[in-house]
Give the backbone structure.
Amino acid sequence: MLNIIKNRNLYYSISWVLTIIALIFLFVFKLNLWIDMTWWTQTEYSYSWVTINIEDVRKNVWEIEKTVLNNWKNVINSTEIFKITWENKFAIIAWFDNSLDEKNLENFKIEFKTKVFESLKKLDPNLIETQYTNIWKSFWDYIKNTAVLTLILAVLWITIYLAWAFSWVLTWWKIILSFSWIVIITLFHDVIVAAWFYVFTSNFLPDFKIDTFFITALLTILWYSINDTIVVFDRIRSNLKVYTKKDKKELDEIINLSINETLARSIYTSLMVIIVLFSILLFWPETIKWFVLTMIYGTLIWTYSSIFISSPMLFDFNKNEKLELYERKEVNEEDKYVV
């Protein structure tokens, strides 16, 4: 049987190192942002049954980039062209110089899009522009604000639930304090480390960019991380009921026992999730591969934290507390009286 509590300082040290490296990396290194994180443009085209050579499209777009100028300087920082899997469609992404004012920037966007369309029509006269996305900074601000609000609400509701679920074991203020901090620390750890793994990967594999799917994956990691932690905590709660009444055990023994009882379940569940995610990563469309890779990293991290971080922290927060069950008083109707 694993003695998690005895070796908890080792696990804490690993998490501290990962978190510090993650924070340094996220704040120091340049992020590989996608179109909806940089508020530029994405244009999608549908072509006829005649196959278009994507390399020919790239050459045309690169030539057009050189013609869109502002005071002899290139307006377009970079472009990316990719084929949409299993469809006669491809998309062109363009990143523009963000030092331009909004009015001039919009004019250059239209100029670029018009020139590209005219050039591509020569490759396929039946070419159709099916979608044009032009996202500004306000959208990114909305995504950030929504993510922060979701995080706050998740932490608040889970803290209330855990405080209620364990209310018969310890004093109320101690429960709220301990579980609030455990939830907050665990979520911060899981999201930051998973984000770092993904950002680190995107520096070597430029196809993996940071976009709204990445943000969605981080929010999903929040939920699964909390869910995995609750499974372990719920077993601890059940064992506290048993081992504070009879066959009394110390808190570290109860937590160790609970972790080992749920260990196989946590590992097998996470393993199945990772297998499914890898299958999606390999065979599904490219549009969700960033979400899937982030979820793979998140699954590894939340499995580790729910076993080796959350439960040991529960011990450290409450190791000096006296384990007594909260006894509810039964009301005897015959004892009631009217004044």
